[in-house]
Design brief:
single chain; alpha/beta; 4-stranded parallel sheet; two-stranded antiparallel ribbon; 5 helices; 6 strands
C-alpha cells in the first residue's frame, strides 16, 4: 500500500475589501484562506493556501466597546519598557497592523506560520502594487 501524499496546490492571489467589516470575523476568514482550509486537499503541514491582499484596512470596524477598551502591548526588553496602545490609536497611526496582528494570532507559531504570514499583504487605502499577479476579488 502506498500512502497518498498531496503536492502543495497552486496558490492564487485573492483581493479582499475590508471596508465596514468586523476585524475578528474578517481575520478568521483570512487565516483560513492562508492555511488552505478552503481547499479539498488541505494538508496541515504544507503551505497550500492562497496569497491574500487586503485593501481599506483603515475602514475596518470593531464590535462593542473594543475601540477604546482593546489594548495592544509591546515590550522593549528594558525595565518599565512596556508600551500600551489602544485600538483607536493603532487604527489612526498604523491601520494595517490591526489586521496583521489579528491574523497572526490565528496562525501557527512555527516556521509554517511565518511562511503563511508572509503571504498576507495589507494596505490602508485602495491601491496596491500587486496588479501583475491579477488577483481575484472575493467577498469574505
Amino acid at each position: 500500500m502506498k500512502t497518498y501524499f498531496p503536492q502543495a496546490p497552486r496558490s492564487e492571489w485573492l483581493l479582499v475589501d475590508a471596508k465596514g467589516q468586523t476585524v475578528g470575523r474578517l481575520a478568521t476568514r483570512i487565516a483560513q484562506v492562508l492555511r488552505g482550509k478552503h481547499k479539498p486537499d488541505f494538508t496541515p503541514h504544507q503551505a497550500g493556501g492562497d496569497f491574500v491582499i487586503v485593501l481599506n484596512a483603515n475602514k475596518v470596524v470593531f464590535s462593542g466597546d473594543k475601540l477604546d477598551s482593546k489594548v495592544y502591548t509591546r515590550y522593549s526588553g528594558y525595565q518599565g519598557g512596556l508600551k500600551v496602545t489602544t485600538a483607536r490609536e493603532m487604527l489612526a497611526k498604523h491601520p494595517e497592523r490591526v489586521l496583521e496582528r489579528a491574523v497572526w494570532g490565528m496562525l501557527p507559531k512555527n516556521r509554517l506560520g511565518r511562511k503563511l504570514f508572509r503571504r498576507l499583504k495589507v494596505y490602508a487605502g485602495d491601491n496596491h502594487p500587486h496588479v501583475a499577479q491579477q488577483p481575484k476579488a472575493i467577498a469574505l
